[in-house]
Amino acid sequence: MSAEMDKQYDPKVVEKRWYKYWEEQEYFKADAGSDKPTFTIVIPPPNVTGVLHMGHALNETIQDILIRSRRLRGFETLWVPGVDHAGIATQNVVEKQLRGQGQNRHQIGREALIGKIRQWKDDRERTIVEQLKKMGCACDWSRYRFTMDEGLSRAVRRVFVSLYDKGLIYRGKYIINWCPRCQTALADEEVDHLDLNGKLYHIRYPFADGDGGSITVATTRPETMLGDTAVAVNPEDERYRELIGRKLRLPVVGREIAIIADSHVDPGFGTGLVKVTPAHDPNDFEIGRRHGLEQVQVMAGDGTMNELAGPYAGMDRFEARKKLVAQLEAEGLLEKIEDHAHPVSHCYRCDTIVEPYLSTQWFVRMKPLAGPALEVVRSGKVKFHPGRWTKIYYDWLENIRDWCISRQIWWGHQVPVWYCESCAEMTVSETDPDKCAHCGSADIRQDEDVLDTWFSSQLWPFSTLGWPDDTPDLRKFY
């Protein structure tokens, strides 16, 4: 007697049963020993911060169609699944939970925080995997990867050491994007530029010789004037040519600063006279380097003013702005305030206004790496569809800046560098050393920073296939 067909289709029962059958039959498992031509997709790893959304569903559906169609056409197919540890985003979620419990990461320590993050990550990871299976994704689950797996971590260290040895990774003190809430450096791509209706403050800087005269500068961030070390004019600006070299008395602080000439200054902005704060603005930083100016940092990493901010030390940066403006007005040094719409950088994760901040970080020299990537497009080896993306690609790589790869968080691949307390030298190593490579001292400590999430994600297409080890996958499916 035949079984009666259900009157209504129940996907929860049918799809789960069939997917289990497909897995048991190993229909999605790739055979490295097959003689068939290969077709591989390494799933762009979703962040482990949350569950999949409709954007993921569309993306994975397209990949599933490509994999299944190639399998039907006789290819040996491999679709590698996995997730990304998403450094800042994931740590933010767990730290938020800690704050709700009246704690912070420094109270519980690095090891305990990482343990809590791993517990949270494991839970979300299971949900993501189940979502992919419910969608029917034809993934080879025997090859599931996580960006902090042992093999992938080994690949990260191999690349770091290799680039360092070639002089392409260096440590330096430069202006970077800094989130005062996350208290970490951010890459340019992690910053959102939002147009805000701000203010342009016109401030009088008296001449230091006490003749009663002054010049006027315009700024959107008056609180940073406490770190000014010069005022700059364009050398072609005839209005101010005779002022070059004269000394000014910086309001509030009383520091003596000079008027300098630099071609970077836009004569059409504000008054044509620009305050130069090398420790708090990327353009000012470059001007400062060209003219050998002092770098006076007046802000702490949490967005409060530090001891060099004089009477404003300890205040939040925006509170200091209000009180400083009030003081300037009371002293007759505030000429006027204008409405001024301009783009303001925000942290992509927590929406806090980002500070240009002078900080010691690890960087990758990008121009030598961008060269080969440009050449394959110029030669026609790689083509963009639609073609209009080619110009965008050129603009991006031809104007690329060095990549800040260090992050001041604990969740991620810790920078594989050790500092010697005896000789102050650095040991850069793929494996954990037990002594300094220079003097042999055992008194060494590892750099506390971790690498930008994308430092590991960039390696995903081949680290998931076994690199840097010599594996059958890397010979066949890459």
Task: Count the DSSP helices.
Answer: 13
How far from one another are the termini? 52 Å
Rg calc = 28 Å
Would you report the number of β strands?
20
Q: Which structural class do you get from the secondary structure elements?
A: alpha+beta
* Residue windows where pLDDT falls under 50 for at least 5 positions: none
Into which percentage range does the β-strand content fall?
15-25%
Spatial strand order of the main sheet = 6-5-14-15
Instruction: Based on Cα principal axes, name the global outline.
Output: elongated
Helix content: 25-40%
Q: How confident is the prediction overall: mean pLDDT?
A: 94
Main sheet properties:
4 strands, antiparallel
Record keyword descriptors for this entry:
4-stranded mixed beta sheet; 13 helices; 478 residues; 22% strand; 32% helix; elongated; 4-stranded antiparallel beta sheet; alpha+beta
Short synopsis of the structure:
This protein is an alpha+beta fold. It contains 13 helices and 20 strands.
